[in-house]
Design brief:
With 468 residues, the protein is an alpha+beta fold. 31% of the residues lie in helices and 22% in strands. A hairpin with a 4-residue loop joins strand 10 and strand 11.
């Protein structure tokens, strides 16, 4: 990566930066040097289990793994700074002594109907939080309301509420804090008009239990075990917002970032918040600097996996896509409970036309479907500027070329970063006081293929909004 990045540094930088990146699927601890070169990595399948009331995340093994990995990586290069990053849909409740007051909820949990009915009566309006009522337990506030209602005695012991990424910082040796990108992502906990606690947070008294606010780059403690490095722990950041930060550090402006993985999250730097349509899975979050940013959401990685039946995107080919188009084989949304940009399609996904019967055909259909759905998300964002694809889908050339064909008025770039999320989190170690560091990124310009998608896309959209 040396030839891809140029750093502009005015201050002394740390030696080793360890990013603890807690994803829903995998947890990684990645070691970077001061030039953001990736030196080493450790990985764990993120543990979950069925709980008594809801699905749970096993945070204990995640912290144990992170501690052991940091110790190992400190022997490679002294770890001076530790930066936690995590997926947004998780909130942690602590007793006064710092132990868990309640099991940590997995966002794939399905709230009972009476919980949702009660929550709807209290939920803040879209104009306040820029987030609709999302499926499953994807909202922080739904998780808290469910726990408060179903487990009142345990909830009464809650002294401190903080997001998962700040809990990781606390568990590694920091003090409990909250951070704006972590508190605002699909949460209903924040009034994004002025970055204050939301109406439901105030009415339920949760805001009085929120840990004190810190900046993502603030030092909140020292690693609990002895290291060769200084082991300073930062407050941390929401993973997709870390990804967005990485491109801000490259000096980019007026762009739409597609942060891809289990979810495909679109960040538009200049979307008009007044034009957002809640029904199309459009939300907003705040950057680490507190700026409200419009975001699209699509369960793209998961839906790709379902359609492709586990086949990797590298198996997709344009020749197979052309055959699917000729045969009018279509994957219609949506294959998860989230309808993404096409409302009321959650759980209704199906394939029509001749079924794909090879790995190549399945991967090609999944790539085509995801390109169509992402284009719908971009329409919902009113995206007009350059589009940057980061993460696993940036390696799927068929998806990229199909997206370029669907968005011919915009330039499509594929990032060459191996892990924009973790690298963006690492940038926090290089910006004391919040002064954004500069780190350029090399990107590939994607050329649209000679495939005519207009008729197929029109037919797909008609069927997508009409099928049962």
């Amino acid at each position: 990566m040396n030839n891809l990045l140029r750093m502009t540094a005015k201050n002394q930088h740390p030696r080793g930066i360890a990013v603890v990146d807690v994803g829903f699927t995998n947890t990684k601890v990645i070691l970077y040097d001061t030039a953001l070169n990736l030196l080493a990595e450790r990985k764990l399948v993120s543990p979950h289990h069925d709980g008594t009331r809801y699905l749970e995340i096993d945070v204990g093994p995640i912290l144990d793994f992170a501690r052991a990995a940091i110790l190992e990586l400190d022997a490679v290069l002294p770890v001076d700074v530790i930066v936690p990053s995590a997926h947004g849909a998780c909130v942690v409740c602590l007793k006064q002594d710092g132990t868990l007051a309640l099991p940590v909820m997995n966002y794939m949990s399905e709230p009972p109907s009476h919980i949702l009915e009660g929550y709807r009566k209290l939920m803040p309006p879209f104009e306040e939080t820029y987030s609709p009522l999302l499926p499953m337990a994807l909202l922080h506030a739904v998780q808290l309301y469910w726990q408060q209602t179903a487990l009142p005695e345990q909830f009464a012991e809650v002294h401190t509420i903080l997001p998962l990424m700040q809990y990781v910082a606390f568990g590694l040796g920091g003090r409990p804090v909250t951070e704006i990108s972590s508190m605002s992502c699909q949460s209903h906990l924040m009034d994004l008009r002025n970055n204050t606690p939301s109406s439901i947070s105030r009415s339920q008294g949760w805001d009085t239990r929120f840990a004190p606010r810190a900046n993502a780059w603030d030092v909140v403690g020292i690693f609990s075990l002895k290291l060769a490095g200084e082991g300073k722990i930062l407050a941390g950041v929401h993973d997709s917002n870390a990804n967005y930060l990485r491109y801000l550090a490259a000096g980019l402006d007026h762009f739409t970032l597609l942060s891809t993985g289990t979810w495909i999250i679109g960040f538009d730097s200049h979307a008009d918040m007044r034009r957002l349509d809640a029904a199309r899975d459009i939300v907003a979050s705040a950057s680490v600097f507190g700026k409200t940013i419009a975001c699209s959401r699509f369960f793209g990685g998961k839906e790709f996996e379902i359609i492709a039946k586990g086949t990797d995107g590298s198996k997709a080919t344009l020749a197979s896509v052309a055959e699917l188009i000729r045969a009018r084989t279509m994957a219609l949304p949506s294959f998860t409970d989230s309808g993404g940009p096409i409302p009321h399609t959650g759980g209704k996904g199906k394939i029509i036309g001749p079924l794909p019967d090879t790995d190549e055909a399945r991967a090609s259909l999944a790539s085509l479907y995801c390109a169509l759905m992402v284009s719908e998300s971009l329409d919902a964002l009113h995206s007009e500027h350059a589009i940057i694809v980061d993460g696993p889908f940036s390696q799927n050339d068929v998806f990229l070329k199909l997206l370029a064909s669907l968005r011919r008025g915009q330039t499509i770039f594929a990032s060459t970063l191996r892990d924009g999320t973790a690298t963006g989190a690492a940038c926090l170690a290089l910006m004391p006081g919040g002064l954004l560091t500069r780190a350029d990124i090399a990107m590939r310009d994607i050329v649209a293929p000679d495939i005519e998608l207009t008729s197929y896309q029109r037919d797909w959209k008609t069927r997508s909004t009409a099928h049962d």
